[in-house]
Amino acid sequence: MADYDGPARVPAGRSSVWLGVQRHVPKERPAAYEPQPPAQNWAGAYAAIDEAEELGATEALVAKLQNPVGQIREACIAALGRLGGEQATSAVIAALGDDDPWVRKAAATALPQVLPEEKAVTRLVQLLHDDDDLVRARAAQELGDLGHRHALLPLETLLRSEPAGSQPQLAAAQALEKLGAGEIARHNPLASPLGLWVIGVALFATGGGG
């Protein structure tokens, strides 16, 4: 089983691999997010983003971050992360404060692509305090992938503070396992027995069970 990647969203009609994970259209879009544009507009919008990335048109992608639709901003941040460069880096960092947690998640994924490791770790540790489970879980996963020892204490804190079996706790457990601290994840005294069982299953499934 691959690392937990959380729920996924895409606009209706888009079925390609996005951010490295096959996306599925959710049954309902949370009311807190802005309305989606008509379905027929998606193809043109994504084609423009793809073309801008292929051309290395960083300025065009940054301009599209003014779009009121979160999915468009999310796709632009993913593209900017792949392109890199000073302007893209500034846009990715600014997106960490976006109102849409999916955009912040995309920015968290892009951080290691546009920043030196030490700076990326610092930003990702800050995201462990984000108010959305999706973002905290992604930040934990990225920290595990980076393998930086400075992330140990923040990840242990996340593991102990999150509800048992929650997305961020599972991501923290997997990250700690990658950092060679799996015993912390398996023997968290503040987690419920059920939560520990869930974590143990997750770690075993990802190859961390022995």
Could you write a compact summary of the structure shown?
This protein has 210 residues and is an all-alpha fold. It is built from eleven helices and two strands.
General description of the model:
The protein is built from eleven helices and two strands; from the N terminus they run ββααααααααααα. It has 210 residues and is mainly alpha-helical. The protein has two domains: 104 residues, Leucine-rich Repeat Variant, CATH 1.25.10; 90 residues, Leucine-rich Repeat Variant (Alpha Horseshoe), CATH 1.25.10.10. It has a two-stranded antiparallel ribbon with strand order 1-2. The two termini are 15 Å apart. About 13% of the residues have low confidence.
Strand content: under 5%
Shape: elongated
Counting H and I runs of at least 4 residues, what is the number of helices?
Answer: 11
Distance between the termini: 15 Å
CATH topology of the largest domain: Leucine-rich Repeat Variant
Q: Which series of helices and strands comes N to C?
A: EEHHHHHHHHHHH
Q: Bin the helical content.
A: 55-70%
The radius of gyration over CA amounts to 18 Å
Overall number of strands: 2
Mean pLDDT: 77
Number of domains: 2
From the 3D coordinates, which CATH architecture of the largest domain would you assign? Alpha Horseshoe
What structural category characterises the helix and strand content?
mainly alpha
Low-confidence stretches at least 5 residues in length (pLDDT < 50)?
10-29, 189-195
